[in-house]
Design brief:
The chain is an alpha/beta fold and 297 residues long. 37% of the residues lie in helices and 11% in strands. Strand 1 and strand 2 form a beta hairpin. It binds adenosine-3'-5'-diphosphate.
Length: 297
């Protein structure tokens, strides 16, 4: 079954949320001028984007860290392709921080030519799917699919926002020698957030004091993010989220797929994804007790 056109449109081979982007805007991104100082968080949807946006914002904005500025996280680290408030990104002061779900080939030319820094976060795809399933109940901009198996089949066919998970991850990891890019896994952030914050700050060339690092780790914890109104989407417009249907910061764990997928569904998932996943430079964690590590590239 094709995704409902009420919620998504297809452009240049990719699916976009209908009410939040236009084909013209997506086209304009090809020539969008990239600066060396730009930083992008890139993910497949539901892989820990907000979490990484929060870490970036805390690293760059002292006013966010010490609570003196009451700015929504989405204004600190806005979406490149979903510029819903028509912000004038071209005239924003540096350093600009952006989030994006775009596949590599739809990114602005300047980025593809090696400008800017990219932090790519990957999460095990079964938890991505489960998170997407619950998110589409909460989000009024996504088609709610009651039957998990139907959504799973769409996910395995790449007929969801972000397209085919495998294509997204492969497309970005193929650029690892060409771009200034840091790969992180959701599961490693979960296991050891402090090391991940240090990895990110080192990658960005920021030397932070121990106290600041600890403060960032604290404010980027699941519990603190859930309580922080600048972050937790509780103030989001009722036209975008139906807060009676769920919560954006839902569970924040590894292995939740086991609570919803049947053995047969999990096997079906593996039969479609396993071969290509084995070639990816990540050893994914499927359970909270697994130890994440990157395979050597
Ligand atoms: P769950 O639905 O599994 O809870 P994205 O921002 O890419 O849409 O990803 C959303 C997922 O990241 C949600 O997963 C959300 O709970 C999780 N997440 C956000 N902040 C987190 C944090 N500080 N720690 C752990 N998970 C977090």
């Amino acid at each position: 079954m094709e995704p409902s056109e009420k919620y998504m449109f297809k452009h240049k081979g990719s699916y976009f949320v209908r009410d939040l982007a236009t084909p013209e805007h997506i086209d304009s991104l090809e020539e969008f001028e990239i600066r060396d100082s730009d930083v992008f968080v890139v993910t497949f949807p539901k892989s820990g984007t907000l979490w990484t946006q929060q870490i970036l914002s805390l690293i760059y904005h002292e006013g966010h860290r010490n609570g003196t500025e009451d700015t929504d996280l989405h204004d600190r680290v806005p979406w490149l392709e979903y510029n819903v408030f028509n912000k004038d990104y071209a005239n924003w002061p540096s350093p600009r921080l952006f989030a994006s779900h775009l596949p590599y080939h739809l990114m602005p030319k300047g980025l593809r030519n090696g400008k800017a820094k990219v932090i790519y976060v990957a999460r095990n795809p079964k938890d991505v799917l489960v998170s997407y399933y619950y998110f589409s109940k909460l989000s009024l901009k996504h088609e709610e699919i009651e039957d998990f198996e139907i959504l799973m089949e769409r996910f395995l066919a790449g007929k969801v926002q972000g397209d085919l998970w495998l294509d997204h991850v492969e497309g970005w990891t193929a650029q690892r020698d060409h771009l200034d890019i840091l790969f992180l896994m959701y599961e490693e952030m979960k296991k050891d957030l402090k090391s991940s914050v240090l990895k990110i700050s080192n990658f960005l060339g920021k030397s932070l004091t121990e106290k600041i690092v600890d403060d960032i780790v604290d404010k980027a914890s699941f519990d603190k993010m859930r309580m922080d109104h600048r972050v937790n989407s509780k103030d989001a417009s009722s036209a975008i989220l139906d807060q009676s249907k769920g919560i954006f910061l839902r569970k924040g764990t590894t292995g939740d797929w086991k609570n919803i997928m049947t053995v047969a569904q999990s096997e079906r998932f593996d039969s479609v994804f396993r071969k290509r996943m084995e070639k990816l430079p990540f050893k994914f964690c499927w359970d909270i007790n697994d130890v994440p590590r990157e395979k050597p590239f």
